[in-house]
Structures are given as structure tokens and as C-alpha cells.
């Protein structure tokens, strides 16, 4: 039989049911409000938890006083107390999801009326979302989702044991981690009902109010941020230019200038300075210069003058064997080159693979791509602006991930002349195809040659107090020694 009504016509519970609930800290009035009743129609006396959907009972769960469970055959899998989700007076309250009906009753009794319970216990291992179409385990979640479109806070108050954590994570994935919190129970408690019996209603309230948001990578309070890694910053040993340009690991630099303005030659000098001063290893991805002639000749000139000033012969063949060996060892120690064969498709994928080799297998610290314009760029139907944005983002992430400095040489889209026929100094916005070069780079440098004087202008510095302030320095170039020297006069 079922205990349906009392003498005054309201749902009542027998004394043993009331006692059972009281032992759990629960009131018979809470059970009455939630439609819970007692029954002896099955093999033993039990509490009955009706599962409603849209005003109709679609399932029942039977809980004996010795904690055995059963449900109606063919009953629909919905959340218990689902009807609270459709109560317009509760829409702005957070939703609490528990693992069992008694825990849900506990929350409701303590004032958290927008609480539902899973219709089953926790699984022993996580269930892939991809299996939801063949598994009925989380059918109740799929049923709830249309009712939770406006819900921005869901508190998962499932059991605090290992299986409960599996259920917690499964629910968070399906409901959206960004709007989910999880509770941490007081010592000696594994669920909300335990907290009620040990600490009373205030203990339950405190447990729910202390719920923490699921951590989502990438969003932090400032106090929770991991300590920023101190990345090495290298000066060049180039006098005044050190004030405007410093090389830092993880950064991305762009060098531009009209053709034949000395960009590659200037970078050769800068890289040699880094090799001498800081013992860094540089890799040139060279698409215009010949490594065997242009690069090698320049590096030889630079080294011989740096180490054997005033005694450097005009021709390499005239250099004594000991100096040749010393020069070759220095170049081999500090420099690498990426140079395509005539049939290589020099695209972004090809480049990244070889940059990876340079970093991993050759331990390079600085990578120079010279120039961007000579590469093959497959936009695959998207605009050049979007493609360049992706290209730069890929290189920046590569630099950060591998803790190297990456430099790209990029030509302006056209050469402008003033009324007197002099070539105008380009800007970073003049680089071919996109203004993203200016927007995305950490350092942007313009190289311009006029009347035998080379200007090196830092036009963009994302962190002026660390990697250099905007401004320019003038240099003269000595062809014989492959060295740049600071020039004092103005152009």
C-alpha cells in the first residue's frame, strides 16, 4: 500500500519514514513539498521519489530504508525535481546538481530551491561525449539543456569520492565548463547530506557558497597568474643603437626597407655581434642570397676584421691557413643556413619544418627569414590580409614555444620617390599586402640608405622599457670589412 493522504486530506508519511528522514537531518515537510511519499507496495517499505516532466510523472525511484534502489521499468531518464527548472521565480538563481535525491532535498531544505538530482549514481569511468548518442547515461542532461540556455552558474554538488569526481567532470563537459562550479566538502563529509548532519544548515550553505569555478586555461585573477618567466634580453654592442633595439627570446621582429637598402647586410652585422658578444647561434633562411658566396663571404670579412684588424688581406686565398681554419670554425659554430633547392615549394609548412630542425637539432637561438616576399604563399581563397595574419601568428607562436627570437625581412609593396626623385623612407605600413606587420610585431625596424649613410630606425617597440625605444641611428658601411660604424651627422 501507499501512504497517500492524512485525515486532513494531505500527503502524509508513516512514522518510520519520518524517523528515517530525521536521521538524515531532513524534515517530512521538505519531502511533502517535493512530492516524496512512502510505499509498502514493493517487497519492503520505501520512500518514493516521483520524476516529473511537464506536469506528468515519467518515472519513480524507490529507496528502501536499508538503501536499496529500483525504478519503474521503461521509465524516462530525467532529472529529479526537474520542475524547478521551469519555475520563473527561480530563473536567476544558480542551478545545483546533486548525485542523489536526499542531497537535493538537503539543498532545497537549506534554501536552494533550484536543485535537481541525477537519476542514477556516478559512473566508474568517464564516458566520451561521442558515445552519448548510443548511451542513455546522460539523457537527462540532454533533456535539461534547452531549459538552461540562460543559466550562467551551475554548481555541481555530487559526491566527493572518486566516482563522484568522474561524474562531476562528465557533467561539466556536457553543461559547459565555463559556467560550472564544484563544491569541496568539509572534513569527514562526502555529500551535502553529510554536511547537514555534521554542521547543520549553515554548514550546507557555507559548502555551496564556497563552490569554485572550474579552472579554464587562459583566464586568471592577477593573483593566480603563474610567475612570468624572465626571458633573456641581449644588447648588440652597437653603441647608440642598443638604446633602440635589444633582442629578447620569444619576440618577433620585422625588418623592412626598399630593395638594395642594406637590410640583409645590416642583419649580418647584427647577427655577428650577437655571436661574438653572447655566443648565440643564428640560422638564416635565405631566399635571395647565395649561402656559399654572399653569406659566407660577408661572414668571413666580418670575422677577419674583427679578430685581425689592420692585417686582413683583400682576398681569402691570401689568408694564412691558421686564420682560415679559425674563421671556418667560428662560422660553423655560430651559423646555420636554410636554403631551398630549385624544386622546393617554399611555403609556410616547408619553412616551419626546417625552422624546427634548426631549433631542435642545431640548437639555434635566432632565426632570420630573408625575405618573406620570396616565399610561396597559398591563400586558399582567403584574403591576403587574413593569410598574413595567420602567417605572423604562426611564427610568433613558434618563437614563444621554442624560446627563440625570430626576424622576418619583408619588402615594401612599392618604392615611392619625392618631387626631387629621392627614394622616400618607407614605413612598416608599406610592407607588401598588409598593415598587420606593424600591428603584430614586437619590434619593427626600417633600414634606409641615402648618400652612403644607412639609417636604422626602430619604428615599433611593443615594450620600450625592455627591448628598446623608438628612434633611429645612422651608420656608415665599410664594404672591405663588412662592418657598420655609427655616423654622427644627420641625413
Annotate the secondary structure layout:
Layout: H1 15-23, H2 28-33, E1 37-39, E2 46-53, E3 56-64, E4 69-71, E5 95-98, H3 101-109, E6 115-117, H4 139-144, E7 154-157, H5 162-175, E8 180-182, H6 192-209, E9 212-213, E10 233-234, E11 247-248, E12 252-256, H7 263-278, E13 282-286, H8 291-307, H9 321-334, E14 335-338, H10 348-360, E15 366-370, H11 384-402, E16 405-409, H12 436-440, E17 443-450, E18 453-461, H13 464-467, E19 471-478, E20 483-487
Parallel strand pairs: 5-6, 5-7, 7-8, 12-16, 12-17, 13-14, 13-15, 15-16
Antiparallel strand pairs: 1-2, 2-3, 3-4, 8-9, 10-11, 17-18, 18-19, 19-20
Helix content: 25-40%
CATH top level of the largest domain? Alpha Beta
- State the major sheet: 9 strands, mixed
Could you name the CATH topology of the largest domain? Answer: Rossmann fold
Number of distinct beta strands: 20
Widest β-sheet, arrangement of strands:
14-13-15-16-12-17-18-19-20
* H/I helix tally: 13
β-sheet strand percentage: 15-25%
Domains (count):
2
